[in-house]
Design goal:
Number of domains: 2
Mean pLDDT: 95
Structural class: alpha/beta
Low-confidence stretches: none
Oligomer: single chain
CATH architecture of the largest domain: Alpha-Beta Horseshoe
CATH class of the largest domain: Alpha Beta
Number of helices: 8
Largest sheet: 12 strands, mixed
Length: 304
């Protein structure tokens, strides 16, 4: 699987490309996407300024950022700094997606990200943050009482980012989604690291846990099968990874998993027999995109 299309919906709104030649309308069900072309002479802060001059800043509640120039060489720090500078003018901003790029624009593991600590401090009412790419992604432990949904999509998530999350306080968090990726593209974690992450961020509000795109899916499943917190979730998402029969059988035997409403195992290496057993569970089990070992090797859905 590759990310071949730009995001169509975000923050329950339809994503619309910002066209400077058209008026900005924030009255409807749309969220604007700001993006540059490779040969664009402007910088993203310039495009953001132009957009904000046309928008009712008091009503702006969400934004999506695509390419900010040459994202495989230029970091997202200028985008973050521009948002932080405008923060006093954006009291209604509640959702940000930074890095909405297809593989043709920039492979996920090539996207050079930035330090999100200033952004989270500048927007204490932010409810959703979605980040794509983990190269040079940085975060210090933070306390943020409004953030409900956090998504980090990567082809390889460095443990330093996870450690920062472990040290953070996010009491309102309802949706925690991280793409672990593969060792070839920067993943260097283990089950114990994610055990600590769950222990730190699995507050009473958490309803969705996604440990996706992982090359250690079996180990994660075997651990999660014994976690009581799983039974309090609505959705456990282990999709896009390398899950096989070992992890699947652990999930089958877990009383906590049976209390879920939804179990997403899409892109998996589970045998037909075990798939049938999973389908018999008293919940929605998603088993799309079955894979076959390549001479014993398994691959995550999104790497490079």
């Amino acid at each position: 699987m590759t990310i071949s299309e730009s995001t169509e919906t975000f923050f329950n709104k339809t994503v619309t490309a910002f066209d400077p030649a058209l008026p900005v309308d924030l009255s409807g069900d749309k969220v604007y996407r700001l993006a540059l072309e490779y040969d664009d002479e402007r910088k993203m802060p310039d495009l953001l300024d132009q957009f904000l001059q046309s928008a009712d800043k008091s009503k702006l509640d969400a934004l999506v950022f695509g390419m900010w120039g040459e994202p495989y060489e230029e970091s997202a720090d200028d985008v973050i700094a521009a948002l932080v500078a405008h923060a006093p003018e954006l009291p209604a901003l509640r959702a940000l997606f930074i890095g909405d790029m297809t593989f043709e624009e920039c492979e996920i593991s090539w996207i050079v990200q930035g330090d999100y600590t200033p952004l989270l401090k500048a927007f204490p009412k932010l409810e959703e943050l979605r980040i794509r790419g983990a190269q040079d992604l940085a975060l210090e432990p933070v306390t943020h009482t409004a953030l409900r949904k956090l998504t980090i999509e990567s082809g390889g998530l460095p443990s330093e980012v996870v450690e920062a999350l472990i040290g953070s306080s996010l009491p309102a968090l309802e949706h925690l989604e991280v793409w672990l990726g593969s060792e070839d593209y920067g993943f260097d974690g283990d089950v114990e690291l994610y055990r600590r992450l769950l222990g730190a961020l699995a507050g009473p509000s958490l309803r969705y846990l996604g440990l996706r795109d992982s090359e250690i899916s079996d180990e994660l499943a075997e651990w999660l099968a014994g976690e009581e917190i799983v039974g309090r979730l609505h959705t456990l998402d282990l999709s896009l990874g390398t899950l096989g029969d070992e992890g699947a059988r652990a999930l089958l035997d877990s009383p906590h998993v049976r209390a879920l409403r939804r179990l997403d195992l899409s892109h998996h290496y589970i045998s037909p027999e075990v798939q049938e057993n999973l389908k018999a569970l008293p919940l929605e089990v998603v088993l799309d995109d079955a894979q076959e070992d390549d001479d014993g090797d398994r691959y995550v859905a999104v790497g490079e």
